[in-house]
Design goal:
This protein is an alpha+beta fold and about 180 residues long. It has one domain. It is built from three helices and nine strands, in the order E-E-H-E-E-E-E-E-E-H-E-H. It has helices spanning about 35-50, 130-145, 170-175, and strands spanning about 10-20, 20-30, 55-65, 70-75, 80, 95-100, 105-115, 125, 155-165. Helix 1 (about 35-50) packs antiparallel against helix 2.
Length: about 180
């Protein structure tokens, strides 16, 4: 499958700090949705899964239009903090990664760092049936029409689980 350019859709980039390090999450969206719709969807998603995350603090948010590589600061009623408990430096490498696939065959993902518990089983995968916060988060992702899109601009179907683990880049940066 031919790769699509990153600017194939409108994007919101959310910068946050958790466990002593800065991270970013990218959310793709399409008209008629606006940044306010992305804010609402992100707030709902964070509310659903925040029990799984250490304290995170918003740094800022930026938006880029479809076809543009330029991000500009954007205001909104973003959550200022989410999660709870101050994680140790090592926890910045721990993540939950939600996976999807669009009807066009493009894979999507949404990862958040600062996970409190990186594995509920020996396969580093937490299923909706095992963890209610994962079930709630997946439900929000699947219900957000026109937000949390794949790179092809199509609405993906989110898998009923989240992968967890230790990110090698952040693990090495901590060393």
């Amino acid at each position: 499958m031919t790769p699509l350019p990153p600017e194939s859709t409108a994007r919101v980039k959310i910068a946050y700090n958790t466990c002593e390090f800065d991270h970013e999450v990218l959310i793709r969206f399409a008209a008629p949705n606006t940044v306010d719709d992305v804010v609402a969807a992100f707030n709902e998603f964070i509310t659903a899964i925040e029990s799984l995350l250490f304290l995170s603090t918003l740094i800022g948010a930026q938006v880029a239009a479809s076809g543009s590589t330029i991000f500009n600061d954007v205001a909104g009623s973003w959550p200022v903090t989410w999660g709870s408990g101050v994680g140790e430096k090592v926890s910045t490498a721990w993540y939950y990664d939600f996976i999807s696939r669009s009807t066009g065959g493009k894979r999507g993902r949404l990862a958040l760092f600062g996970a409190k518990q990186i594995s509920t089983t020996d396969d580093y995968r937490a299923f909706s049936a095992e963890v209610s916060a994962i079930e709630d988060g997946v439900a929000v992702l699947n219900a957000a029409e026109g937000v949390f899109l794949s790179i092809d601009g199509l609405q993906p179907i989110w898998k009923p689980y989240a992968n967890s683990g230790v990110n090698a880049y952040w693990r090495n940066k901590i060393r």
